[in-house]
């Protein structure tokens, strides 16, 4: 691979993600509060100097809605991935370090969760909890748990036969100490790379859930619901679908480029290590 390629991916990915984060921060700071107000007299205005991205059917500024939706998408995705990391990483370490029945339980539980599509899981959870941001976080987070558990378990199992782990066992170190002191530091980079990739998937999942009405509920903004609302107005106001769709695509692209760049840098670092 061309050495410049990971650097270019890192730069482009960081720029795209940084732009979305900055947009979300401006929303949090209240910059767009006035633009979110309903003004039916300004409904469906085309993009122009006053409203760069136009207005929606209620007269709200589309740029303000996208900024607010960025905040929603990022916090739901971050929370869902955090659930996967906090629960999945320890499970993977326990399965690899303990072996036997604990390892089998971790592996088979992961297979069971993967057997249920995330959307079906969200439907079941919405019936119990009601649709909303919490439902989206739980549904996406539960699906992320076996992803991180399987990743960490696989890498940790390969490390269990390495000399430094065998030396730790011979010196009397317990399995928990080995998992925390030797396995966890060696899987941390993999977890970071995977978390970046899962963030992009979580953002798409949140948009999908909101699109079908199972995610974030009004009055909170969501890119998925903006796309749903734009369905009947595509011919009259195409910007209502174009701009939130573009924001979603650029965010996912940026995160994927970051994940690819981090993965490439990690692979280069590992290949340069002494055997």
What can you see in these coordinates?
With 275 residues, the protein is mostly helical. The protein has a single domain, classed as MetI-like (MetI-like fold, Orthogonal Bundle). The protein has helices at 4-28, 62-98, 100-114, 118-129, 133-159, 163-170, 175-211, 223-229, 239-271. The radius of gyration is 22 Å and the shape is elongated.
Keywords summarizing the entry:
275 residues; mainly alpha; MetI-like fold; 73% helix; elongated
Q: What's the topology here?
A:
Elements: H1 4-28, H2 62-98, H3 100-114, H4 118-129, H5 133-159, H6 163-170, H7 175-211, H8 223-229, H9 239-271
Helix pairs in contact: 1-2, 1-9, 2-3, 2-5, 2-7, 2-9, 3-5, 4-5, 5-7, 6-7, 7-8, 7-9, 8-9
DSSP strand count: 0
Summarize the biggest pleated sheet.
none
CATH architecture: Orthogonal Bundle
Number of domains: 1
Rg is 22 Å
Strand content range: under 5%
CATH homologous superfamily caption: MetI-like
What top-tier CATH class fits best? Mainly Alpha
Instruction: Quickly give the structural class.
Output: mainly alpha
Q: Which oligomerization state do the chains in this entry correspond to?
A: single chain
For the terminal residues, how far apart are their CA atoms?
22 Å
In short:
It is built from nine helices and no strands. The protein is mainly α and 275 residues long. The radius of gyration is 22 Å and the shape is elongated.
């Amino acid at each position: 691979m061309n050495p410049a390629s990971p650097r270019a991916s890192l730069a482009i990915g960081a720029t795209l993600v940084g732009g979305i984060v900055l947009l979300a921060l401006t929303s949090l700071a209240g910059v767009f509060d006035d633009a979110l107000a309903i003004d039916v007299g300004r409904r469906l205005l085309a993009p122009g100097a006053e409203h760069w991205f136009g207005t929606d059917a209620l007269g709200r500024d589309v740029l303000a809605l996208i900024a607010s939706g960025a905040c929603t998408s990022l916090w739901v995705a971050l929370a869902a991935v955090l659930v996967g990391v906090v629960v999945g990483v320890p499970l993977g370490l326990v399965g690899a370090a303990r072996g036997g029945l604990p390892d089998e339980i971790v592996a088979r539980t992961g297979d069971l969760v993967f057997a249920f599509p995330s959307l079906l899981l969200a439907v079941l959870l919405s019936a119990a909890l009601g649709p909303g941001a919490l439902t989206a976080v739980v549904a996406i987070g539960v699906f992320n748990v076996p992803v991180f558990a399987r990743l960490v378990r696989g890498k940790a199992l390969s490390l269990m036969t390495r000399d430094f782990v065998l030396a730790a066992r011979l010196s009397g170190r317990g399995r928990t100490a080995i998992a925390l002191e030797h396995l966890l530091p060696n899987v941390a980079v993999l977890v970071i790379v995977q978390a970046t990739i899962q963030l992009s998937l979580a953002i798409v999942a949140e948009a999908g859930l909101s699109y079908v009405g199972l995610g974030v509920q009004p009055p909170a903004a969501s890119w998925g619901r903006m796309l749903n609302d734009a369905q009947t107005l595509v011919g009259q106001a195409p910007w209502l679908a174009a701009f939130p769709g573009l924001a979603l695509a650029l965010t996912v692209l940026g995160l994927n480029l970051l994940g690819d760049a981090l993965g490439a840098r990690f692979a280069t670092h590992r290949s340069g290590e002494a055997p």
